[in-house]
Predict the structure.
Amino acid sequence: MFRMISDIGTDAMKDEAKLARMNTLQSDIEGIYAKATVSFSDGQTLALEPGLTQLMASSRNYTKLQEAWIGWRDNTGKLMRDKYADFVTLSNEGVSSLGYHDTGEYWRSWYESPTFEPDLQKLLEELKPLYSNLHTYVREKLMDLYGRDKFPTSGQIPAHLLGNMWAQQWNNIYDLVIPYPDKTSVDVTPELKNQSYTPLRMFRTAEEFFKSLGLLPMPDRFWNKSIIVKPTDRKMVCHASAEDFYNQKDFRIKMCTDINMEDLVTIHHEMGHIQYFMQYKDQPVPFRDGANPGFHEAVGDTLALSVATPKHLQTIGLLNSVENDEGSDINYLLSMALEKIAFLPFGYLIDQWRWSVFSGETPKDKFNDKWWELRCKYQGVSPPVERTSTDFDPGAKYHIPSNTPYIRYFVSFVVQFQFHKALCEAAGQTGPLHKCDIYRSKEAGTKLGDMLRLGSSKPWPYAMEALTGQPNMSAKALMDYFAPLTAWLEKQNAGKQVGWQDACSNQRHAPLSANEQQAKKWLTEYNM
Ligand SMILES: C[C@H](N[C@H](C(=O)O)[C@@H]1CCCN1C(=O)[C@@H](N)CC(=O)O)C(=O)N1CCC[C@H]1C(=O)O
Ligand SMILES: [Zn+2]
């Protein structure tokens, strides 16, 4: 039932005036986020999409990145803190009449599991070694590029250097960390541009993958009513989304599509929601949901695990040659780790923060301290500049002002590898999981479609068992997928300080002395 009354549901809020106040606060907060831009010292003013997103992805100028990072937070979160605190109070009052202690408890109830929180913690712990090894490898490369004196002695990576406004996924710094530069590079963004792909062609390419599995095509109304490019005549929240109009025929995507690989993956993500909406459209309305919210997030990403393979990209003409050697393999696995492994602590900590706010554990004057306590501890990222309690950095991330729960993405990034493994088996693929492409497999499509059609009519362990043969969330498929990379990273990091201290320190590393620089240069050349 999460979808129908995901915020509170009007029927839950007895007091009309309080409901009106809560909705006003929510729309004020969303309005701040929607209108925010950053004006730079050089006179340039950028909106989040495409300007700031492209800058965070492609700039290698430490100071420019820092200016964008601070400016975005000054013009979003910093303006929301007090309103958000009032919103939390009213949101909790709303759910208390539904019988929940607070909004966080209500949101967790959608997973229908008394062990949901410890299960999540166990998954994160299982995945921590792989994340720590990736973090260490990336940190070393960034220290070489930006200088050790920019990095805290406690081991975190400054959050503005990871190619993304929130450091949530690091795929945009792939070129800075690529293990074997002379081997196949999987980034097809240049090729998308060379072949003058348009947003529509990107959407048609995604649809063709779904149809190749025997899944449902996008209906005409979808193509007529969706908005897939940033409108020039009016303001629109560009953050990509997919909506179900609950009339069994109207399903739409809104997205300011940029011509790059990241957006091609996002298109699959959004189209995965549409496919789910359509597959369960004949269920009674209360069952027109995902089996749990994480399942809804995992559909499109699961298919994108096939689409992103060099083999598939070659099949659709976006990669002209595929080399089958260890170096190309590691290059590919690292690019996937920058998107999937890097995300895990981020996907976990957003609602750890929010649940602690809803429960009352984190009061308003501790909002930002708690946020950086979690970011430093779980994600191993640090703020580029000192933060104060009047900052409100959580508010700089879409899902906080839009009040969209986030643990669903952590669940999705785990279960999508279970789904991928099950569909690869159904498709009769036997090689390593990261090379599997289920393209054109009707067996895989039937298996997935059968699970999607259930909607939320069965408990999610039933749906999980129907698809994968067992009822639990498990990190095993994800670990199997990345196994070759794990071994390679451990070798790369041998002798290095792996990991970071829980708390971020303000102290930075001393710069290398001249002869230390020289020694490092020789070492690097020698290792080559
Ligand atoms: C880009 C994506 N946009 C969301 C999504 O598609 O989930 C949008 C905004 C919030 C909910 N939403 C919807 O479309 C829902 N209506 C879907 C549904 O009905 O369940 C997004 O936010 N992502 C993708 C990766 C991680 C996360 C991020 O970018 O941080
Ligand atoms: Zn989604």
User: Anything to note?
Assistant: The two ends are 57 Å apart (CA to CA). The beta strands are 37-39, 45-47, 157-158, 241-244, 251-254, 381-382. The pocket of zinc ion (ligand 2) is lined by residues 269, 273, 297 (CB under 6 Å). The chain is about 55% helix and 5% strand.
